[in-house]
């Protein structure tokens, strides 16, 4: 209701209209009863039945009126539901934009997409359809009880016995805490498949290159297998309760026939036959109502789970903003005894690290995977907040610098840069929204991107993505570097920026970096050690600590981790295929 705003009154109106339509929908059954009553009263002179036509048209009129009112109710519920869904998505996306970038990066994109899109869609389905149906399912039994009291109470009571059995089966075996748990497991399984599917699709080029199958992506296959296992188990567990519920809810007329056989042992009256026909006809409404209650209960479990998943994101704490932002005096970076651990981790990802990067100095972070390189770079850009210690830019703690000002100070080039479904011009212009077309073109030139632009007829206006063209990983990286050129921040963080570049693209990327890095404080993360040999200082990180530091030459003079890494790197670079060739795997 909070997200509905003023549209919440439409939700109330939809429930009232739906309940009203349910009650009006019962009137035609009364008209049918009056038609049968008149026929029985005038038989065999059926020409004396003068009210049949009027009763019939009255039944049609009330049936149409019920439909119109129900449609009006659905129009109200849909208008409110779409507003709620749109508001939820807007609020969630705005909140996600405020979350630490480290959190967003740590979550699988498929998971966030499913929560934002599918969970909000679940609320739309519930408000637009299930909530009015719930009102109908509550109003219909009230109307039926009143009508049953007017006619033969014995038949009315007997017809309620199977309905009560169906309701008990639904409440004890098909609903309640068990269904809530099952719905959560179901959504977890879908979420896992969605997330792994995204990762698998991204890895298809690798799969094709090495002639592998889906089984190469064990996590994706495991997600599918777990979903299959859960679905089969859940279906089997629900088989008997569902059979019992369906049989009881659809077998009301059969119980009435048995009751009629017992009650008419001493003779049959016209009134009893008339009432029996009425109950047999109207019990179909009771059956439909029970089914609506069942589906409404399931839908409520689904929407509650959807809301809980949205709350998981909305409950993530944002980084506190400085009340008064301070301006860094320069682009020097100081890391002072910093410690950081991810939530739920058993050990610190960064453990008491201190280092300095003076203005215009280039430093490199190297070391084995999991050593903390990317985490440390993320902390400098304040993707996370440190647990202890301090990170300062220009003598000011990053916590005291407003997020907008901090982003003006830092450019971060990721190893897997993303391009959005828009033109090359707009993709690059994200670095500086106020930039002119000429400034964007100059940034593209500086980033060695003109060969990319020239091969497309529409040039910088070429659309990227499903409605346009696709570029290679290396080309995508160069376009991301053009974005960094346009931003022109004094501090540049490069996180494995050549990881996905082929040799030709890597050469162009390195040329772009040489131009981009001039007069900037650069923090570079690299596995290709040839890219860091000219760094002013190289820090070797292992298990969250600085194992050693120095220039390339200084580290090679002693028996160091870096020296071993350099030796292994050169072996891999100088490796050549033997003259005999390579046997096919």
Automatic annotation (TrEMBL):
Pfam families: ABC_membrane, ABC_tran. It is found in: Cell membrane. It comes from the Bacteria. One of its GO terms (molecular function) is ATP binding. InterPro entries: AAA+_ATPase, ABC1_TM_dom, ABC1_TM_sf, ABC_transporter-like_ATP-bd, ABC_transporter-like_CS, P-loop_NTPase, Type_1_exporter. It is a multi-pass membrane protein. The keyword Transmembrane helix applies. Residues 13-269 form the ABC transmembrane type-1 domain. GO terms for cellular component: plasma membrane. The keyword ATP-binding applies. Its main location: membrane. Keywords: ATP-binding, Cell membrane, Membrane, Nucleotide-binding, Transmembrane, Transmembrane helix, Transport. PROSITE patterns: ABC_TM1F (PS50929), ABC_TRANSPORTER_1 (PS00211), ABC_TRANSPORTER_2 (PS50893). The chain crosses the membrane at residues 9-30, 55-76, 157-176, 242-264, 276-295. Residues 333-568 form the ABC transporter domain. SMART domains: AAA. This is ABC transporter ATP-binding protein. It comes from Anaerobutyricum hallii.
């Amino acid at each position: 209701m909070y997200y509905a705003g003023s549209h919440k009154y439409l939700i109330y109106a939809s429930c009232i209209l739906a309940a009203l339509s349910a009650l009006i929908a019962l009137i035609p059954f009364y008209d049918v009863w009056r038609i049968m009553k008149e026929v029985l009263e005038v038989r065999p002179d059926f020409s004396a039945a003068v009210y049949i036509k009027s009763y019939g048209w009255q039944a049609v009129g009330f049936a149409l009126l019920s439909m119109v009112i129900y449609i009006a109710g659905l129009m109200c519920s849909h208008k409110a539901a779409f507003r709620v869904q749109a508001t939820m998505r807007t609020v969630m996306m705005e909140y996600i934009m405020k979350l630490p970038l480290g959190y967003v990066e740590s979550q699988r994109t498929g998971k966030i997409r499913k929560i934002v899109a599918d969970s909000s869609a679940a609320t739309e389905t519930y408000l637009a359809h299930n909530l009015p149906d719930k009102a109908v399912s509550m109003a219909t039994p009230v109307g039926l009880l009143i009508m049953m009291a007017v006619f033969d109470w014995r038949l009315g009571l007997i017809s309620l016995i199977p309905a009560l059995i169906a309701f008990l089966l639904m409440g004890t075996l098909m609903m309640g805490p068990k269904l809530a748990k099952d719905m959560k497991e179901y959504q977890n399984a879908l979420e896992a498949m969605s997330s792994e599917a995204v990762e698998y699709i991204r890895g298809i080029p690798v799969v094709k290159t090495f002639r592998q199958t889906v089984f190469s992506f064990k996590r994706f296959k495991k997600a599918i297998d777990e979903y299959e296992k859960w679905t089969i188990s859940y279906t089997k567990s629900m088989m008997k309760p569902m059979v019992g519920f369906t049989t009881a809810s659809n077998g009301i007329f059969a119980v009435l026939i048995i009751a009629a056989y017992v009650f008419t042992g001493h003779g049959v009256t016209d009134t009893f036959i008339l009432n029996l026909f009425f109950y047999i006809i109207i019990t179909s409404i009771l059956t439909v109502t029970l089914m609506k209650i069942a589906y409404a209960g399931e839908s409520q479990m689904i929407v509650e789970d959807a809301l809980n998943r949205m709350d998981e994101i909305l409950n993530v704490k944002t980084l506190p903003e400085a009340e008064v932002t301070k301006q860094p005096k320069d682009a020097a970076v100081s890391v002072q005894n910093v410690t950081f651990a991810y939530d739920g981790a058993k050990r610190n990802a960064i453990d008491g690290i201190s280092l300095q990067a003076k203005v215009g100095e280039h430093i490199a972070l190297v070391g084995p995977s999991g050593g903390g390189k990317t985490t440390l770079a993320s902390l400098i850009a304040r993707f996370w907040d440190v647990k202890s210690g301090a990170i300062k830019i220009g003598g000011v703690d990053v916590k005291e610098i407003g997020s907008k000002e901090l982003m003006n100070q830092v450019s971060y080039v990721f190893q897997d840069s993303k391009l959005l479904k828009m033109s090359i011009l707009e993709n690059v212009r994200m670095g500086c929204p106020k930039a002119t077309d000429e400034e964007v073109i100059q940034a593209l030139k500086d980033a060695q991107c003109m060969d990319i632009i020239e091969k497309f007829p529409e040039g910088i206006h070429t659309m990227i993505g499903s409605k346009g063209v696709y570029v290679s990983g290396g080309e995508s990286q160069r376009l991301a570097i053009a974005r960094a050129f346009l931003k022109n921040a004094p501090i540049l963080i490069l996180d494995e920026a050549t990881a996905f570049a082929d040799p030709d693209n890597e050469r162009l990327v390195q040329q772009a970096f040489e131009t981009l890095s001039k007069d900037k404080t650069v923090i570079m993360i690299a596995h290709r050690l040839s890219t860091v040999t000219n760094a002013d200082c190289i820090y070797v990180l292992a298990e969250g600590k600085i194992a050693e530091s120095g220039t390339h030459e200084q580290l090679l003079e002693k028996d160091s981790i870096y020296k071993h890494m350099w030796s292994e790197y050169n072996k891999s670079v100088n490796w050549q295929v033997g003259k005999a060739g390579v046997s096919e795997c």
